[in-house]
Each structure stands twice: as structure tokens, then as C-alpha cells.
Amino acid sequence: MRHRPARxxxxxxxxxxxxxxxxxxxxxxxxxxxxxxxxxxxxxxxVAWRNPHAEAKLDYQGRTWxxxxxxxxxxxxxxxKQDMLKDGTVATVEGYPRSDGTPEMRLERITVAGKTVELx
Length: 120
Description:
Layout: H1 8-25, E1 38-43, E2 45-48, E3 55-60, E4 63-68, H2 72-77, E5 90-97, E6 104-112, E7 115-118
Parallel strand pairs: 4-6
Antiparallel strand pairs: 1-5, 2-3, 3-4, 5-6, 6-7
């Protein structure tokens, strides 16, 4: 019988390292102030259609804000397609700002070309 090195400890170690990294890669929603709803309209910039959620930039009150959308599969299921969110598309966004003052908002809904889509 040949002796094989134990692979289970190595696999457990790999999982133990990967889980915290995955948790850090995606932020939670607790860093947003759900008591302060922002509603802004303007052209979207730097639209990124990707997961874990799509993102864009929008000028609001003299600052460029990062707007955090929903996962692409959820938006598509609710009728918001990638070709509807291109750079320069005028949109009305409604969302919650970060509590720490960073110009970033978690969107609850977006209106594009007269169509309102709930994101959460």
C-alpha cells in the first residue's frame, strides 16, 4: 500500500483562506444610510455591467457618485437590459448614500426611458 500525503488538511486550509477574501470582495449594505433617500437625474458615466452587481457613475450636487445597481441577472429578469444602460443614458436613480460620506449610493430603483425598475 502506497502512502499518500493527506489532502484534506490542504483543502481545508485553502477554503479557510478563500472565505474571508470572498467576504471582503463584496461589501454589505449596512454601510448605507437607509433613512436618507437620494433621488437624482442625469447622464450615466462609466457603466459597468458585471457581477456581483452593475455599477455606474452619476454627477449629483457637484460630486461624481458611484451608483451601485443590482446583479445583472436580477435587472434582466425585471426588464432592464444591458443596452438600456450605456454611457450617456439619462436616468433617474433613487438610493441610499454611504453613511461615511463617500459619494456612493446603493440604488433601490432606476428609471430609464420612462421605465422604472425596482432593484432590491
